[in-house]
Design goal:
The complex is a heterodimer of chains A (262) and B (608). With 262 residues, chain A is of the alpha+beta class. In chain A, 25% of the residues lie in helices and 28% in strands. Chain A has helices spanning 2-9, 17-24, 34-38, 97-107, 136-148, 177-186, 207-217; strands at 65-66, 72-73, 82-92, 112-119, 125-135, 152-157, 163-173, 190-194, 198-205, 222-227, 231-233. With 608 residues, chain B is α/β, with parallel strands linked by helices. In chain B, helix 5 links the parallel strand 4 (111-115) and strand 5 (138-144). The longest helix of chain B has 15 residues, at 93-107. The chains are: A alpha+beta (262), B alpha/beta (608). Chain B: Belongs to the TPP enzyme family.
Chain lengths: 262, 608
């Protein structure tokens, strides 16, 4: 510990060494007056205002930098790319859980594209599915912050080959029912209501399909539109959120679901 | 309502509300007595929802709650009167929440505050947000209008759960008298599980009035909220290897070291491997500031040497810190050469603000022991020349100030004079502003939990109610001092009435410059000296005001006053207020401008 001994000789507190020796002293209540200990002529080592020491520009400063996520980088580093992620959260179905999740995304400024929620087959559990457009670091943060909410049981990000779908209801002008029907059929949709003035159809599919369908129906004049946002499940034998249990009706066949918790 | 349960015989005097101002007379409860009392509270049939709430507090071992009465919380207060839980009536709910916060900081257990619905609850909001930002364990209980009136905009109705959701770890709306006690216990336990934080239970009046005989049970946090204390061994090995490979390692100890009761491990770790230490502001006290390895705290007004060390380290061992912007300055220039080892109990803090090259998720004390064991004997880096460099910075950038006996008193001098006269383990509370920075810079902290301040939220007015909470929480032989600014003190000055009523031995030192001083300093630096709304044309005489409250008032106008005032104020057994008229133009330096590089801290205004 020779290094320690050397350092201690050099003093080592925020006070100047000679002051420090006087104030510290090792006793709780020094008998000497603090004024006597501290009084010294105007100026001393300190300037009239501010502190003594080398000017900022005289100090060496490393040339390295970090990006907006605090990652060390090369100086010519460009802006971080964003990507779209579908995040699924299994939650306790209690009042306010949706508001908590939505409020979290709002206040932390995560860019959210859609949010859907609905019950699962497990009583008291719901699934929230969120689509976010964020940088890699932003997606990680969003998942971790979501997982911190007390009613959130598990959070998972869906893989690229997950099954995803959303539903749209389109109310269009009813002047050309045959054509509307034809396009509805092309998108495997259903006609829910047909009247002399309006026709309402339902289309389901992934986001691109829905976007295309809306384009196709635009020719008739879309009066109203209601779109659910994307919901999704992991494909095959993979749980959608980590540690997820299979639903009750699947319990008897759980030997096939080795990736799920029992 | 059924008859409230009587306190356990094991604690004969604690339930006696009368004469509780003299806390020193209370008999010491043994651990066995306390455990028996908690067990009894957990298993008794409470009778009512309100009694269940109180039983839950007793089962959690709560000794004191801070609060203000009001319509919707009255059933709980009524039940509290027969409880072993002591209650300190504060002047304002903001006082209650800050007192509870500071009580929790000092004790390490959640502080408890209570308020009624509507304005009572909204007056808690600032303090709950404060506790949230500083990860302080705290439980808030709020009254609420009866369940059937919720949503009707009833008298004193506020959506307390909605308002406080973003600033609590979790909050609860009690909707069943049978479950309310267990809910309060869960909220208490959750507040101090894993990363601490405030929780709240909203208590509709019909729920607390409602009958129940269901025992509240042991306070238990939800399983999911209980994190693994031990870190993944691979993470530890990788971090240890990074530390072994470093030439200029630096420990950065945050508030998590103190909250995780890891100061012993932190001190042992830094000393064993002779690694210099800087702390964050909430981390003050985690490492003794008079230790040769300690460079004091880093950040906006941290020491020059701490900021130089952060700028030049090649391996930053950050424990229990969230890399607040007041610490990092501009993230682009923060520790630009450092591989970052980040130890935290909260995975969401990893790479939130600063990318962690070596994340280690776990409890600070446990992980520091793991790291200690993982760094091979003889593999620790040789830090001798790095330590010498740090010492050179210490000499180059001394924390210093000039004294002219004919000029107004320097605030730093007042802080140092009290430090010299008080015990090493004194609790120091502060408001927010210049005085807070001087209290942080010029007091030498040696022990954890002794610097009790509003860090993340920066709440002016925190100091006095915090001193009340700290005084109630602290052992009798520990001293409590509060540094306040004139602006900060005026925000919660009404709590002086509580300190007098409860006969609390605290010393409030108002560093009075008749400015909102930090704003004035920024206006001088960045707004061409336009002192809009920062300069007071009139300030009350705080020493006289203190006397009107029933406290003892002192005044400092010049250096010759300091010694005698320090002596008399500390000798006074009760609340005293020192109105210290300081140099109004004194500024806080060093200063890292917002978003600037830590290593480019200014030593004077013309360097900003």
């Amino acid at each position: 510990m020779t290094g320690e001994a050397e350092r201690s000789e050099q003093g080592g507190d925020e006070l100047a060494p000679e002051e420090h020796a006087a104030t510290d002293g090792g006793t709780d209540h020094p008998v000497e007056s603090p004024l006597v200990e501290h009084a010294r002529p105007t100026g001393g080592d300190a300037p009239e205002t501010g502190l003594a020491g080398p000017h900022p520009e005289e100090r060496p400063h490393p040339s390295g930098r970090r990006d907006e996520h605090g990652v060390r980088k090369e100086p010519d580093h460009g802006p971080e790319p964003t990507r779209r992620a579908t995040v699924s959260a299994l939650v306790e179905d209690e009042p306010g859980v949706l508001a908590r999740a939505a409020g979290l995304f709002r206040r932390r400024q995560f860019n959210i594209e859609s949010l859907t929620v609905g019950p699962t087959t497990v009583e008291g559990h719901s699934r929230i599915t969120l689509v976010v457009e964020e940088t890699e670091a932003g997606i990680e943060q969003a998942k971790k912050q979501l997982a911190k909410l007390t009613p959130v049981i598990a959070v998972g990000e869906l893989s690229n080959d997950a099954v995803a779908a959303e539903l749209v209801l389109l109310k269009v002008r009813g002047k050309d029912p045959d054509k509307v029907h034809a396009i509805t059929s092309m998108y495997d949709g259903q006609t829910l209501d047909a009247g002399p003035r309006t026709i309402t159809v339902q289309i389901t599919g992934d986001e691109n399909t829905i976007d295309d369908a809306i384009d196709a129906f635009d020719q008739f004049g879309i009066i109203e539109i209601a779109r659910t946002g994307q919901t999704a499940l992991e494909r095959g034998d993979s749980p959608t959120t980590p540690g997820e249990e299979p639903g009750h009706s699947a319990d008897s066949t759980d030997d096939e679901f080795t990736n799920y918790d029992d | 309502m059924s008859e409230p349960a009587t306190p356990d015989a094991a604690s004969p005097d604690e339930g006696d509300d009368e004469g509780r101002t003299d806390r020193a007379d209370q008999p010491e409860r043994t651990d066995d007595d306390a455990a028996a009392a908690r067990e009894e509270a957990a298993t008794r049939a409470p009778g009512s929802g309100a009694n269940a709430v109180v039983a839950a507090l007793e089962a959690a071992g709560v000794e004191t709650a801070f609060g203000v009465q009001g319509g919707a919380i009255m059933p709980v207060y009524d039940a509290l009167s027969a409880s072993t839980v002591d209650h300190v009536t504060m002047a304002h709910e903001q006082g209650a929440v800050h007192a509870a916060d500071a009580y929790g900081v000092v004790r390490g257990d959640p502080g408890v505050c209570m308020a009624t619905s509507g304005p009572g609850a909204t007056n808690l909001v600032t303090g709950i947000a404060d506790a949230s930002m500083d990860s302080d364990a705290m439980l808030a209980l709020t009254g609420q209008v009866p369940s059937d009136m919720v949503g009707s905009d009833a008298f004193q109705e506020t959506d307390t759960v909605g308002v406080t959701a973003p600033i609590t770890k979790h909050n609860y709306f009690a909707n069943d008298s049978d479950e309310v006690g267990q809910t309060v216990g869960e909220a208490f336990a959750l507040a101090n599980t894993g990363r601490p934080g405030p929780t709240l239970v909203d208590l509709p009046k019909d729920i607390t009035f409602g009958e129940t005989d269901r025992p509240v049970g042991e306070p238990t946090a939800p399983d999911r909220a209980v994190p693994d204390l031990e870190a993944d061994e691979e993470q530890v090995e990788a971090a240890a290897a990074a530390i072994e490979a470093a030439d200029r390692p630096l420990c950065l100890f945050g508030g998590g070291v103190i909250k995780g009761d890891a100061t012993e491990q932190a001190r042992a770790f830094a000393r064993e491997f002779e690694i210099p230490v800087v702390t964050t502001m909430p981390g003050i006290g985690s490492f003794p500031e008079d230790d040769d390895l300690c460079l004091s705290w880093a950040g906006m007004h941290g020491t020059g040497y701490a900021n130089m060390a952060i700028t030049h380290t090649d391996c930053l061992i950050a424990v229990g810190t969230r890399f607040d912007d007041r610490l990092t300055g501009g993230v682009d220039t923060f520790a630009p050469e450092a591989e970052v080892v980040h130890v935290d109990i909260d995975p969401a803090e990893i790479s939130k603000n600063v990318h962690a090259d070596y994340p280690v998720i776990g409890d600070a004390a446990t992980v520091l022991d793991q790291l200690d064991a993982a760094i091979g004997y003889g593999d620790a880096p040789d830090t001798e020349s790095w330590c010498t460099q740090c010492d050179e910075w210490r000499e180059q950038y001394p924390m210093d100030y000039a004294i002219d006996p004919d000029e107004p008193v320097k605030p730093q001098f007042v802080v140092e004079a009290f430090d010299a006269a008080m015990d090493d383990d004194t609790y120091v509370t502060t408001g927010v502003g210049q005085h807070q920075m001087w209290a942080a810079q010029y007091w030498t902290y040696r022990e954890p939990r002794t610097f009790v301040s509003s860090h993340g939220l920066g709440t002016m007015g925190y100091g006095l109610p915090a001193a009340i909470g700290a005084r109630v929480a602290a052992d009798d032989d520990r001293e409590v001092i509060s540094f306040e600014g004139d602006g900060s003190f005026l925000m919660t000055i009404q709590e002086l009435s509580v300190a007098v009523r409860e006969d609390l031995d605290i010393t409030v030192v108002v560093l009075n410059n008749e400015y909102i001083g930090m704003v004035r300093q920024w206006q001088d630096a960045f707004f061409e000296g336009n002192h809009m709304a920062s300069q007071y044309d009139w300030m009350p005489e705080f020493d006289t005001l203190a006397e009107a409250f029933g406290a003892k008032g002192f005044r400092i106008d010049e250096y010759d006053d300091v010694e005698s005032v320090v002596e008399e104020a500390l000798a006074y057994d009760g609340p005293s207020v020192v109105d210290a008229h300081i140099d109004p133009e004194e500024n806080v330096y060093p200063m890292v401008a917002s978003g600037a590089a830590n290593g480019q801290f200014a030593l004077a205004e013309d360097q900003l």
